[in-house]
Amino acid sequence: MMLTVRTRHGRPKRRRVGALLLLALAARRTAFAPAPVSMEGAEVELEGPADGRELLPGGVEPLRYELELALDPERSSAFTGELWVSLNVTNETFNITFNARSLRFDPQSLAFFGPSAVAPVEVTENVEAERVTLRFEEALPLGHAWLHMTYSGEMGKEDMAGLYTSRYQDREGWKTLALTQFEAVDARRMLPCWDEPSKKAVFALTVVIPAALTAVSNMPAAAEMTFFKTRRWKKRQQFTKITFLDTPRMSSYLLALAVGRFDSIQAQTSNGTLIRILTVPEQAEFGRFALDVAVRALAYYEEYFGVAYPLPKLDMLAAPDFAAGAMENWGLVIYREVDLLCNVSTVGIARKVRIATVVTHELSHMWFGNLVTMEWWEQLWLNEGFANWMQTHAVDVLFPEWHIWEQYVVEEQSRALRLDALRSSHPVEVPISHAKEVDEVFDAISYCKGGSVVRMVNGLLGEDLFRQGLALYMQRFAYTNTGSTDLWACWEQVSGLKLQKMMSTWTRQQGFPVLLVNASDARAGHLSLRQQWFLADGSEQPGDETKLWHVPLLPGPASREASPSILETQEMLWQAPNGAAWVKFNFGQLAPYRVLYDSPRLRTLLAGAVGSGQLSAVDRIGLLLDAMAFAKQGQLPIAELLRLVAAFKGEQSTHAWQALSEVLTTLHRAVAVAQGDFRAVDVAVGNGLLQGALHEVGFRAKDGEEDLVRHKRALVVGLATRYMPTDKELVKEARQRFESWLKDPLQQDALPDDLKTSIFKVVLINAETDAPYRALRRLAKLSDTPQAVRLSIYSALGAARRKDLRRKTLDMALGGRYGVRLQDIMYPVQGVSSADPSGARLAWRWFIQRRGAITARLQGANVRLLGVVIQCAAGALPEKAHANAVQAFFEQHPVPGLERSVAQVVEAIRTEAKFVTRLEQGVEDTELKDVLQRFEN
Ligand SMILES: *[C@@H]1O[C@H](CO)[C@@H](O)[C@H](O)[C@H]1NC(C)=O
Ligand SMILES: *[C@@H]1O[C@H](CO)[C@@H](O)[C@H](O)[C@H]1NC(C)=O
Ligand SMILES: *[C@@H]1O[C@H](CO)[C@@H](O)[C@H](O)[C@H]1NC(C)=O
Ligand SMILES: *[C@@H]1O[C@H](CO)[C@@H](O)[C@H](O)[C@H]1NC(C)=O
Ligand SMILES: *[C@@H]1O[C@H](CO)[C@@H](O)[C@H](O)[C@H]1NC(C)=O
Ligand SMILES: *[C@@H]1O[C@H](CO)[C@@H](O)[C@H](O)[C@H]1NC(C)=O
Ligand SMILES: [Zn+2]
């Protein structure tokens, strides 16, 4: 029997398969090894480039997947698939190897259609490597061919990975929907595929589902057909077969599907692209805000990148269960409900900013990531670092009133610097040999440091050249894959600046420098500038000094330099501009490094700039966060840090308050565990800083108030909750608001979303009975409680002081009657561990005792979720003995795939514990006493 494939796109007619089956059967007799099979294959599989990447063997390129999938999520978790892959055999080979995980193949269906049809003589599944190899008796003919297979699989229930089911409650009761999450390596759980970002192909998807359900995918439906099928007991059921249009050439991790009952709202961009919000029934109205952001952002990006959005539509779907915040599947972005839906007239500001940011983040991926994709996971930062920058840039354009770049420095840049100051950090471009290792790299380095590095380039090039370089990059590499050097090359081409070498010091090298500014050892009128690897704990090891970065000095307030001065060597003498009272380096906090001034210069800066308001908020924030890091490291006396904090008395900027909140939260935690009497510090901060601020912001929002004013109120009340939770006035206010809110929880006036977590905490801390605790827990269970309120409750419950209540709160992470969804597992844990030192101890003990149950619940989910739980349970107690205990525990019970995260948690605890020791040693410091007094004046 000979079969010929004539047209490139037309696959062989199905009737021909029957003939082929005979062949397959014949082959089977000789050597069919039923799956799952031997693990020995693992060693042989190591092929690919010499850099140790475990890539699929070459020789065969997928061009097009034609997949027909049948599923009925409301009745069964099983699904079946029939797949035709159009391939190009480019090198002589006997084998075809692709990825698949937990799929059961129909052995008789496996066949290769080249010039003739052949069945494999052997099928080997390597379960560990998630690969299947088909071996053929003769070398496969070069050129175009089709591969055919039918298979079945199971949708995971709580996995939130691959094709999985998610449950929600509506008026009629519990319902089930099905959806996908593939990045990084879970497409292979729905279909056999070449699951690597550079194996781009066209996906032509067809689904067969019950007619009562709807299906959405990357592309709109091209055809729909309804038919009846007789089920068991002669019950006829109506089904729909939906064929979606071909996707563009894209990576497998971007494929997406959702099947269920959805409500939607929609709008069109000025360019005519249809954008829809899809939700479970009766929730779509809550997507108005996100829809509006998406319409404006998509239009903005088309103009910015100079490339039209390439697909006919964009769906944004809110999923009841979702492991990440959102996923940028091309044309079908899927979000956690809380990151997409809100009532815009009542939503808390932090949440509103978050929704806008998540939407702009995902939509930027439609170009950066989807149209142009990283060539391998080592370059993940190209996707995520860029989106981290772009999300902020776009929100700044759409909502200038939010001053989002200030928030960027407080949240994103500082997260980057915090993590990257650890010895257990990693370079932005981190070698990934096996794709599974990439899970751990979806971290603050890829996102926040990556974004901060992009921001630095933006600062050096200026908006125009920066954008031109990107537009060039989009045009040059559309539908292909790239590495960092491709991006640098485009920026070099438009600007004439040399970037390659400079940027590699930031992306190929772990860590970042501190710039030491010193006048005492320099000529008059000069400053000596020195760079040094910044390590959070101030430790030094031989060889540390060899690290060098190309550090843009960015001195201010002088105007923009013609060409940026860059420190490439260890040190230099820098001529200070004449007549300047003060100078601040890294002006505008454009680059991810810290600056330490000698103490006369720091004082001049404080006097000349902070107090009198000559420094912009972003630079005040930079000084404060740097000072905190230096105090932790031991380079700055704690008295100096407090002197700086005191200078923020009367601060107006919301984001400076956000930075203060970071600093004061760390300080408070240190004071709480330190041996000795440090109440004076708490009292000084409470009376000297917070009382006044609280009085100024009040509890009640004024009509027409700006978003940032509301946000500042939330921050100040949050700090007050920490520093003075038993303050009479605060308790009275909180109780009143809480009581009137409890009477009508959907009514917002008494208790705006912004303040809920804080007010709940104050009420719980001061409660005489467990009534408020029970009331809150019950509310969290009700289906009409909005998700954002539910999260506020989960976060607050840990504040209740009784140990039995705290244990109950922790156990909510495990499921059960009051249990949280798996996606929310970290909230109750964090609520308890961050409450106070005894909460932190309890959370860690709970983790040890319940480890079996915790890991069992997280079994099928992405390992990152467990990483977050560990971080919450272990990371909140800054004591050396605790760091040792955590380290010892994970040495005994290692968690594969989280080795680096655990090391980071341990190192961060050790660093903070050193800070506590320093605080203890400084208790008799007269200067400290002096500073504390200044707070209150
Ligand atoms: C396939 O053949 C090309 C050209 O003959 C060669 O450059 C390439 O390395 C081969 N690839 C593999 C995976 O053997
Ligand atoms: C198949 O691969 C060969 C060799 O790389 C190439 O010349 C040819 O254009 C490819 N064919 C298709 C259909 O992609
Ligand atoms: C084909 O795969 C089998 C099993 O993985 C392996 O033993 C064999 O060496 C491979 N043959 C070729 C030609 O790649
Ligand atoms: C979309 O709008 C941009 C400018 O905003 C324009 O350059 C582009 O041609 C438009 N694309 C389509 C498909 O209309
Ligand atoms: C949003 O909240 C306002 C004020 O509480 C309310 O009037 C409105 O109905 C809510 N919107 C939706 C869609 O529920
Ligand atoms: C500044 O230089 C002096 C003299 O070399 C040195 O003692 C001091 O530690 C330096 N200060 C900083 C912040 O580098
Ligand atoms: Zn992203």
TrEMBL record:
InterPro entries assigned: Aminopeptidase_N-like_N, Aminopeptidase_N-like_N_sf, ERAP1-like_C_dom, M1_APN-typ, Peptidase_M1, Peptidase_M1_aminopeptidases, Peptidase_M1_dom, Peptidase_M4/M1_CTD_sf
Annotated active site: E362
Record has RNA-binding as a keyword: no
Site (Transition state stabilizer): Y447
One record GO biological process: proteolysis
Ranges of residues in domain Peptidase M1 membrane alanine aminopeptidase: 289-506
Cofactor, how bound (note): Binds 1 zinc ion per subunit.
Entry-linked CDD domains: M1_APN-Q_like
One term of GO molecular function: zinc ion binding
Cofactor(s) in the UniProt record: Zn(2+)
Residues making up the signal peptide according to the UniProt record: 1-31
Aminopeptidase N-like N-terminal domain span: 62-254
Transmembrane in keyword set: no
Annotated keywords: Aminopeptidase, Hydrolase, Metal-binding, Metalloprotease, Protease, Signal, Zinc
Enzyme's top EC category: hydrolase
Positions contributing to substrate binding: E183, G325, A326, M327, E328, N329, R864
Annotated transmembrane regions: none
Cellular component GO terms, alphabetical: cytoplasm; extracellular space; membrane
Annotated ERAP1-like C-terminal domain residues: 582-910
EC number: 3.4.11.-
PANTHER family (alphabetical): PROTEASE M1 ZINC METALLOPROTEASE (PTHR11533), PUROMYCIN-SENSITIVE AMINOPEPTIDASE-RELATED (PTHR11533:SF174)
Annotated family: Belongs to the peptidase M1 family.
Official protein name in the record: Aminopeptidase
